[in-house]
């Protein structure tokens, strides 16, 4: 319906503005301060980054309610990966926030999202530019695996701090006598992360084939 299309357009516009602000801010800071800007990337843009990622949870609801025809499981994996790494790993450990991997991770996320939300906004209006379509469905294929590697590296960097501070580790008293050692949970999640990456890469290739094939047919007809 027109109302739902308008809502989705506004959602994409808000996300585009947020990620564009982050992406532009990162570039300007790097050009102004060089490598020194990497250390406080999280402190300068972390709040907006967290807001954008929280807002992205709505995309799961969009698919569940049927107003977005994207596949649920691949999108669910991509969103939950970011939420876990950003809120559980990076936000909880101040020592990790100043690492260069955080800046690299944010750069990859926002580069992908600026392109994706630009494509989505134009698609809501029935506008399809072949170069933008190609970029949207091609750029993610090399950058998504790189972002997964950056997530894995961020987790590995955070492990000594989770071990030292005992963050999120739980030890229940007797008679339960049950404990959760969070570094083990993160190490297990690394396996889930790379398994999900293999699944998502297959989905990205299938989406690229479907959309670029459709775009080429439309171009030939026009």
From TrEMBL:
<keyword id="KW-0443">Lipid metabolism</keyword>
<comment type="function">
    <text>Catalyzes the third of the four reactions of the long-chain fatty acids elongation cycle. This endoplasmic reticulum-bound enzymatic process, allows the addition of two carbons to the chain of long- and very long-chain fatty acids/VLCFAs per cycle. This enzyme catalyzes the dehydration of the 3-hydroxyacyl-CoA intermediate into trans-2,3-enoyl-CoA, within each cycle of fatty acid elongation. Thereby, it participates to the production of VLCFAs of different chain lengths that are involved in multiple biological processes as precursors of membrane lipids and lipid mediators.</text>
</comment>
<comment type="similarity">
    <text>Belongs to the very long-chain fatty acids dehydratase HACD family.</text>
</comment>
<keyword id="KW-0472">Membrane</keyword>
<feature type="transmembrane region" description="Helical">
    <location>
        <begin position="42"/>
        <end position="65"/>
    </location>
</feature>
<keyword id="KW-0456">Lyase</keyword>
<feature type="transmembrane region" description="Helical">
    <location>
        <begin position="7"/>
        <end position="30"/>
    </location>
</feature>
<protein>
    <recommendedName>
        <fullName>Very-long-chain (3R)-3-hydroxyacyl-CoA dehydratase</fullName>
        <ecNumber>4.2.1.134</ecNumber>
    </recommendedName>
</protein>
<dbReference type="GO" id="GO:0030497">
    <property type="term" value="P:fatty acid elongation"/>
</dbReference>
<keyword id="KW-0444">Lipid biosynthesis</keyword>
<comment type="pathway">
    <text>Lipid metabolism; fatty acid biosynthesis.</text>
</comment>
<dbReference type="GO" id="GO:0030148">
    <property type="term" value="P:sphingolipid biosynthetic process"/>
</dbReference>
<keyword id="KW-0256">Endoplasmic reticulum</keyword>
<keyword id="KW-0275">Fatty acid biosynthesis</keyword>
<keyword id="KW-1133">Transmembrane helix</keyword>
<feature type="transmembrane region" description="Helical">
    <location>
        <begin position="180"/>
        <end position="201"/>
    </location>
</feature>
<dbReference type="Pfam" id="PF04387">
    <property type="entry name" value="PTPLA"/>
</dbReference>
<dbReference type="GO" id="GO:0102158">
    <property type="term" value="F:very-long-chain (3R)-3-hydroxyacyl-CoA dehydratase activity"/>
</dbReference>
<dbReference type="GO" id="GO:0042761">
    <property type="term" value="P:very long-chain fatty acid biosynthetic process"/>
</dbReference>
<dbReference type="InterPro" id="IPR007482">
    <property type="entry name" value="Tyr_Pase-like_PTPLA"/>
</dbReference>
<keyword id="KW-0812">Transmembrane</keyword>
<keyword id="KW-0276">Fatty acid metabolism</keyword>
<dbReference type="GO" id="GO:0005789">
    <property type="term" value="C:endoplasmic reticulum membrane"/>
</dbReference>
<feature type="transmembrane region" description="Helical">
    <location>
        <begin position="127"/>
        <end position="160"/>
    </location>
</feature>
């Amino acid at each position: 319906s027109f109302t739902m299309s308008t809502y989705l357009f506004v959602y994409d516009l808000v996300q585009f503005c947020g990620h564009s602000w982050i992406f532009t801010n990162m570039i300007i800071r790097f050009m102004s301060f060089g490598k020194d800007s990497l250390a406080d990337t999280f402190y300068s843009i972390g709040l907006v980054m967290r807001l954008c990622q929280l807002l992205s949870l709505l995309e799961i609801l969009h698919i569940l309610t049927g107003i977005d025809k994207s596949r649920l499981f691949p999108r669910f994996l991509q969103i939950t990966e970011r939420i876990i790494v950003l809120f559980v790993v990076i936000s909880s450990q101040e020592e990790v926030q100043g690492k260069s991997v955080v800046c690299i991770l944010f750069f990859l996320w926002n580069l992908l999202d600026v392109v994706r939300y630009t494509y989505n906004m134009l698609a809501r209006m029935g506008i399809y530019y072949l170069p933008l379509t190609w970029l949207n469905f091609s750029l993610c294929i090399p950058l998504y695996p790189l972002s997964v590697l950056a997530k894995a590296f961020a987790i590995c960097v955070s492990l000594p701090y989770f071990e030292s501070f005992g963050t999120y580790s739980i030890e229940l008293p007797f008679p339960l006598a049950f404990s959760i050692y969070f570094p083990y949970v993160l190490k297990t999640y690394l396996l889930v992360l790379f398994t999900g990456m293999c699944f998502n890469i297959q989905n990205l290739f299938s989406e690229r084939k479907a959309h670029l094939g459709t775009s080429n047919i439309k171009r030939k007809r026009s």
